[in-house]
Amino acid sequence: MNQLLNTFSRFNRHEQVMLLVGTITIMLWLIWMLLLAPLQHKRDRLLATNIASGQSFSRVQLLARQVENLSQQSVQAGAGNENLSGLINSSLSDNGLNMSGLQPGAGGEIRVRIDKASSESLLQWLYELETKYHITIRELSITASNEPGQVAVSVRLIKP
Length: 160
Fold this sequence. Notes:
Layout: H1 2-9, H2 13-73, H3 84-94, E1 101-104, E2 110-118, H4 119-131, E3 136-144, E4 150-158
Antiparallel strand pairs: 1-2, 2-4, 3-4
Helix pairs in contact: 2-4
């Protein structure tokens, strides 16, 4: 440390000021590049992710409102004598969904499990069940998947 101070004291006052200003400038630049710039980059990425999530949530809310409104407007009419499980299976395949489990319940209820489904296809399928086939959704459980846009669903259905 003494050697550094001796070397520094050999310069005249003007050169010492220039060295100090240069050293402070370099230190501030290093702080910016090593600490603040990466934090700003991470903040920008998180902000973009947050905006994308908000937009996705808005789309899901809109689709949910559409399903709710259309289910309230639908007329309760029979869809013929078709078997409920066959009807569910055909409507799933029409929407590109694959059922992973079907469990009959008491009183004509059926519990359907879908492990991987696109949220838009799922909402379209639920809409068709209520409006086209007049099947009532008694219980609905939607769980997010690790893959973006994919969900796991458990739904309990009954045909009145």
